[in-house]
Each structure stands twice: as C-alpha cells, then as structure tokens.
Design a protein that fits this description.
Elements lengths: L1 H21 L6 H8 L3 H7 L3 H16 L13 H17 L7 H8 L5 H27 L9 H22 L3 H17 L4 E3 L6 E3 L1
Antiparallel strand pairs: 1-2
Helix pairs in contact: 1-2, 1-4, 1-6, 4-7, 5-8, 6-7, 7-8, 8-9
Length: 210
C-alpha cells in the first residue's frame, strides 16, 4: 500500500513541478511519467486521464493550505505579519529568478472554458489562500484599528490580487521591482486606513480610545 501511495505521490509531484514550470498545455502525460519514473498503466489506474491528474495536483495544493496541512498554512495576526506575507512571495520569486508565477494561478490561466470543475478547484484554493488575510482584517476591524465600514473580504481581495498580478508581472519582466513597488503602495494605502491610538482593555477586551 505504501509503495502504491509513493508511486501516486511521485506522479503528482512531477506534474506539480512541470505544470508550474511550463503550464498544463505544454506538459504531456509522457513527460510526467518520465520525470516520475512511472508507467502508463500506473497513470491510468490512479488518474484515468490528464484532467484527473490536474485535479489531484490542485487538491494537493488545497491540502497544504488547510489547518495542519503543511508549512504553507499561515496566520496573519499583526501588520508586521502582513508585510512578511508579501515579502515571502517576493523572496520566492527572487529565489527562482522570476521564472515562474503562482503555481495554482498558472494552472487556472490554462484552463479551457469547458473545464468548470477544475476552475472550481482553483477558486476553492484561492478562497482558502485569502482566508488568513480576511481573518486579519476582521481582527483589526474588531479591535477598532480599521474603520467600521471597512470590508475585510474586499481588502483580502485587494492584497491577493496584488500578489497574483505581481508574480505574473515579475515573471514576464524578469525583475521584482514592479512587484515590490506595488506592494509598497498597497501597504501604504492599508496603513492609511489604520486607526492608531486604540487600546484593548484587559477587562472587557473591547477597543477603547485613548
């Protein structure tokens, strides 16, 4: 059983790498088999077809984002954490010399109009990725550090879109300056919304003006 799981995981790992590097259209099943050292009979046993493989790759990404699912899961509980969230992505882009963008975004960009189920997988992962951002902005709003009319989901969309667009542009231009400049402006804008001088009372844990 363990050997079977290892074989399936090798194929998923190889596909993840190839999809991220060159997209799903440019990646053939034969390339996945060659990279993973597996055979066609094993492939069709586990995945049936290429769409089945893509679904398994996306669900692997999803599992890494769920609680206790792996190192990708993160919590954002302070403004410094928010900066670090952006910086980790920028550092990743630099480490690969801007040769790739978001792995899930790369797959999503390649999906055809009739691949709605796979598109739903991508949307599910995007929503899970944005959740720590929305939770953070909800926390700051609850503490009184954001205006009462601030929308945590909208602000999370804003940050997530900056991240996705920044990764794509840095891949195309082979430099991180546009991404870093966009992040700097985004953080400046978010800080402009921030209300300072708010103190959390230990007695009732409600924000009070000081």
């Amino acid at each position: 059983m363990r050997e079977r799981i290892a074989t399936k995981e090798r194929m998923i790992g190889a596909a993840m790498e190839l999809f991220h590097l060159q997209g799903i259209h440019a990646t053939t099943v034969d390339q996945v088999l060659e990279k993973s050292g597996t055979g066609k009979s094993q492939f069709y046993h586990y995945f049936k077809n290429k769409e089945g493989l893509i679904h398994s790759v996306l669900m692997t990404f999803y599992s890494r984002l769920t609680p206790n699912g792996g190192p990708v899961q993160t919590k954002i509980q302070s403004w410094d954490d928010l900066e670090r969230w952006f910086q980790r992505v920028i550092d990743f882009q630099k480490s690969i010399r801007w040769t790739r963008s978001c792995p899930v975004g790369t797959i999503g960009n390649d999906l055809a109009e009739d691949q709605e189920l796979l598109r739903q997988d991508v949307r599910l992962i995007f929503e899970l990725t944005k959740k720590p951002l929305a939770d953070f902005f909800s926390l700051m709003k609850g503490r009184g550090e954001l205006p009462a009319d601030a929308n945590p989901d909208t602000l999370a969309d804003f940050c997530f879109t900056i991240m996705q667009g920044g990764m794509l542009v840095s891949k195309i231009k082979r430099e991180s300056a546009p991404f870093e400049n966009s992040v700097a402006h985004a953080l400046s804008y978010l800080q402009s919304l921030r209300r300072t001088g708010v103190k959390i009372s230990r007695k009732d844990a409600k924000p009070q003006r000081v």
